[in-house]
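The material for today's practical consists of a large collection of protein records. A record pairs a protein's sequence with a compact description of its fold. Instead of coordinates, the fold is spelled out as a row of discrete tokens. We will come back to this pairing of sequence and fold again and again. Here is such a record, shown just as it appears in the course material.
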Amino acid sequence: MKRNWKPLLISLAIPLAVGGASTFFTRESMKEFARLRQPPLSPPMWVFPVVWTILFLMMGLASYLVYTSDARRGEKRSALWVYGIQLAVNFVWPIFFFNLNWWLLAFFWLLLLWLMILGMTIQFYRIRPGTGILLIPYLAWVAFAGYLNFGIYLLN
């Protein structure tokens, strides 16, 4: 299989840039977040950037595989639009949660994000099954983030 390096690198860079920008805008809130009461199973703080980086790389790879697939142009365009919209929704959640402390709104925003990820996963899977499988950890992590988000809402 011939790799087209420019689209691959762009596909990997896009979600990393979204995550990096989100982190940049919420960086001042991390000390306050560390002082909040956490629900059981809350991982140490260092876990979050590691997991998110891996998930963003997996998303980028999945989007590249969809982009370079043999699927119909309209089908790919639709799936990649959903991907882009869910990246925007993903970008906003930390601002609601960390900067604004709108924990309940952030929880419902995460539910929206989870549904968008599910729709994207299904669309990606239909185009190229391996891409849908690449997104399952993202679905699982956002579900876990929902548990943590709601737990923080209840405890604080």
In short: Residues 101 and 142 are 18 Å apart (CA to CA). The helical segments are 5-26, 30-34, 47-67, 73-99, 103-127, 129-134, 136-155.
